[in-house]
UniProtKB/TrEMBL annotation:
SUPFAM superfamilies: FMN-dependent nitroreductase-like. It comes from the Bacteria. Transmembrane segments: none annotated. CDD domains: iodotyrosine_dehalogenase. Residues 34-202 form the Nitroreductase domain. InterPro entries: Nitroreductase, Nitroreductase-like, Nitroreductase/BluB. It comes from Salibaculum griseiflavum. It holds the Pfam family Nitroreductase. One of its GO terms (molecular function) is oxidoreductase activity. Keywords: Flavoprotein, FMN, Oxidoreductase. This is Nitroreductase family protein. The keyword Flavoprotein applies.
């Protein structure tokens, strides 16, 4: 039996520190970068090197997680036949959703986005990345509980989306419901739950975005601060 992991403190291996003015510049530069991120459904068939996808997923793998259990797995797919199988299965679920399974309120909320059951981007985008959440894990053949799984996987996925954007790529989050078919297609075990599909690639020349997608809440609606007196 392997030894039980123990706490060991290491000196901080990496340290970043900047003057206040430079911090503000860096924060502003990053804000400008992420403001150019858009979810798209119109993809070019321009190939994307596997190594780029690998580096972006490696960046996602550095995300913080509950008890450092890193409860995620990413399946990256460029095989056209496998992508098409995913598209067919996803569209079958989406047709049920848009035929009323989603409920009137949810469908009304999606109208300004302009989506429907047809998902051609799942074929055209050069890569699909399926995000799985590991609901539990194994150590020495024993099942172990994972903690803060949705939060941890959400953080890692956000970092992945940002890494892809930083590399000059676009993506779209796609969440057909239910998604159990992805376990079978991707040959993933029962302890993993598919969370979403990311279609990844370069935008087509005629790519568009919904006008409503450019309407972001202003800072005063998403931030509350409490500052003590100096």
């Amino acid at each position: 039996m392997a030894e039980k992991p123990i706490y060991e403190a290491l000196p901080l291996p990496d340290r970043r520190s900047f003057p206040d003015s430079e911090m503000l510049d860096k924060a502003q530069d990053f804000l400008a970068l992420v403001r150019t991120r858009h979810s798209i459904r119109d993809y070019s068939d321009r190939p994307v090197p596997r190594e780029v996808i690998e580096k972006c997923v490696a960046a996602a793998g550095t995300a913080p997680s509950g008890a450092n259990q890193q409860p995620w797995h990413f399946v990256a797919i460029s095989d056209p036949a496998m992508k098409h199988k995913i598209r067919l299965a996803a569209e079958a679920e989406e047709e049920k959703f848009y035929d009323g399974g989603g409920g009137d309120e949810w469908l009304a909320a999606l109208e300004p986005i302009g989506t429907d059951a047809s998902k051609p981007h799942l074929d055209i985008a050069p890569w699909l990345i399926v995000v799985f959440a590991q609901r539990w894990g194994y150590r020495d053949g024993r099942r172990i509980k994972h903690y803060y799984v949705p939060e941890s996987v959400g953080i890692a996925t956000g970092m992945l989306i940002t890494a892809l954007h930083n590399a000059g790529l676009s993506c779209l989050t796609h969440t057909p419901n239910p998604m159990k078919f992805l376990n079978d297609l991707c040959d993933r075990p029962e302890n993993e739950k598919p969370i979403m599909i990311l279609a990844v690639g370069h935008p087509a020349e005629n790519a568009t975005v919904p006008a409503v997608a450019k309407k972001k809440k202003p800072l005063d609606q998403i931030l509350t601060t409490y500052e003590g007196k100096s």
